[in-house]
User: Fold these one by one.
Assistant:
Number 1:
Amino acid sequence: MRTDPLSFLSAELDTLRQQGLYRSLRVLEDRQQATSVFDGRKVVNLSSNNYLGLTTHPKLIAAASKAIEQYGVGSGSVRTIAGTMAIHMELERRLAAFKKTEAVVVFQSGFAANAGTVSAILTKDDVIVSDALNHASIIDGCRLSKAAIRVFPHKDVDAARKILQELPAGQRKLLITDGVFSMDGDLGPLPALCALAEEFGCIMMVDDAHASGVFGANGRGTIDHFAMHGRVDIQVGTLSKAVGALGGYVAGSRALIDFLYHRARPFLFSTSHPPSVAATCIAALDILEQEPGIIDRLWDNTRFFKAGLQRLGFNTGMSESPITPVIAGEGTRAMRLSDRLFEEGVFAQGIAFPTVARDKARVRTIVTATHTRDELQFALEKFEKVGRELGLI
Ligand SMILES: Cc1ncc(COP(=O)(O)O)c(C=O)c1O
């Protein structure tokens, strides 16, 4: 009889179960919105990246439906063969104008944008200087590039400087940071890093996945927030979070974008977005440009909820954005907090090692522009109840 060559995977899963870290996927049974039904339970939803509530916005739904009627449901090819539709080009032009750069290339996801770009522009002879908490898609792109990877402690600009001082002046270097760090909600030190990049002649790259639609004028991101236009060579954004649909993009010079058209492997070897996705994103850009009040509502809710958690005495780390972690310590404690909140009607996903450090497990909360004060007040009451029960406050 054939023995299962994958049996070691079951052993690994058993270990996760013993450690209380095995997770079943929570299943959303209706729309992604401020209160939704997951696993048969109606819960205040603090776990999505749907910052502006655009996943269900009537104008986006109408744009997607119209594009399906007009162009069908699929693009039928990769971008470099027959899968570049006029609407893909229109989205790239709109994003370039929005980001105030010469050009933009859109990828299937933010993950593909980061991994595809870093791996395309660097080689084994180059060096990447990267923040310790950068997103997994950056880390994978770095590995794929085969360049040397030098990691500096989170936001430690002096440590980044020491690394750069040791490197040969002629070597090509990429300095890379998240704009908003996805697990802690703090901001990359862009002004200091841009100055460092200029001093040492580095390519400067910022992953603004959680900043697009959230920070800067009309949601242009942290580059706009910190007035760093023209000082960041490669800006990555996503269309999967605040924009409410799916995709990622790189904004930069015309030469960068033309090069990625020729060399970025997800662009070359994976089918482009359905036209409805491009249409949805264009409608989202209309909203960001014409109705920025939606971003103000996100920030009002953020301030209200963050202050509420802090007043209760929770450890919310260093967050400066709508991502507010509630740090619980050990993984099992964070998972218990998440499970108990869920039973009480609040969905805040538990996050443990290896996504975050072993002693910094947490539940991560993200409020949206569409949460009502009643929903947020309800969530705070439940956090208080469960937090006391578990001895966190
Ligand atoms: C910082 C960061 N970069 C990139 C991504 C990937 O974006 P996407 O979900 O569009 O693939 C994420 C999403 O989790 C992220 O948090």
Note: The first strand starts at residue 35 and ends at 38.
Number 2:
Amino acid sequence: MSQTVETIKPSYPLFRDADYKESLGKKQEMFEERHPMAKIQETFEWTTTKEYQELNFARESLTVNPAKACQPLGAVLCALGFAKTLPYVHGSQGCVAYFRTYFNRHFKEPVSCVSDSMTEDAAVFGGQKNMFDGLANAKALYKPDMIAVSTTCMAEVIGDDLNAFINNTRKEGHIPDDYPVPFAHTPSFVGSHTTGWDNMFEGILRYFTLNTMEGKEVGSNGKLNIVPGFETYLGNYRVIHRMLGEMDVDYSFLCDPTEVLDTPADGEFRMYAGGTTMDEVKEAPNAIDTLFLQQWQSVKSKKFVKGTWKQPAAEVEIPMGLEWTDDFLMKVSELTGKPIPESLAKERGRLVDMMTDSHAWLHGKKFALYGDADFVMGMTKFLLELGAEPTHVLCHHANKRWKKAVEEMLTGSPYGVNGKVYTGADLWHMRSLVFTDKPDFLIGNSYGKFIQRDTLHKGKEFEVPLIRIGFPIFDRHHMHRDTTLGYEGAMYMLKTLVNAVLERLDEETRGMGTTDYNYDLIR
Ligand code: SF4
């Protein structure tokens, strides 16, 4: 074997060595019962046709390469945004291992989250006993100030009642009566990771404020509440902090996991770091208003804020791109009476300058995109502002109202008239779309790389390069630190898009003596 103590190789390039190729070949020949390569290629070609696309879109009971994750994953991210809070998932251990690795691979950070490991007996008799032991052990071992409980499919299928279980855990003396354990049912067979975030957030607001509303008065603390939603760009938390700081606004960031997801390597492991405190949540009903930065994904929490806190929860779209950042800042200014400072006006001017500089390269370029509802909405808006053309706009978990809103936005711009919007669709649908109506680029998370590979397999001229913006991004490092919100975020996205266009141009023009008359430096 080519692997020796002196030449340790990782799987790539090790599996390219002749002996591994031979052994893989034998495995395929002897055990895989593969179809002949010609048949595989013929089937591949068929899957790129319009005929296949129609069959693909007629598919009802199967999801292939979903553009979403499950509810408790969102609940875990939400719990991480609160100070000294341990995310606790009532259900199967394997699910929690998946959530942790998902976040580990995206954030390159350890993520603390426990499960009460329900197994066969709990599936039959209910998971109350697991919760008795689980909550007591989690509190004793990891010493959180609060444990935020969500559920996996298994607990939901058998109908475990979190409220009753947590109350019984207290009654039986496993945890003290006043120990904070907010909870949310997060059944994964409905909704997505963003629904789970919303459910957990509402659960935390409900736990700390529902029965203590007496004496609370909207506006009495003069603050503004900011709710990020399922936000995985750490730069987005930081840019909102910065902009509100520059405006001298007094605010509470309700849910902020930036510290715990970005701890320094200085020899000390921090299970908890930063986050919104319980006192801030208790005080939140006294704020002037609560602004939801991902309003399409925060339906339940927004309803709670309006119904229980009696705050207006003013409508703001995600502050992505130029106009919606303007709208956000103007709304903050209107609510707080603080003017927008010169520093932000200058930053805005720089963004406009960049948009003008790059316009010639982005004008008319076609983009297919997918991801979470608010991100896709904001990205579509920004593409239109840039004069780019969104062609296939896909959100797996969005509703009809969202679809209508995006369609209206597209038809309201000359760059959007050819755009089509898809909900309830996955990345296998997207694959068909980019084969039959090729865009110049695809924008989305790492899973789109399979679409890029498949389009390249058909031929270089069919290749649709993936621009990685979204969640999760596993196969590139540190992109979660970037910023997609505010003028700063728009600058980052503009830079990413235009340089992808220029990179592609270089790729297509570097043929020596053939295409290199356009392989120039004057761009
Ligand atoms: S979909 Fe259900 S079973 Fe699968 S990881 Fe999520 S909670 Fe667990």
Note: Residues 486-509 form the longest helix (24 residues).
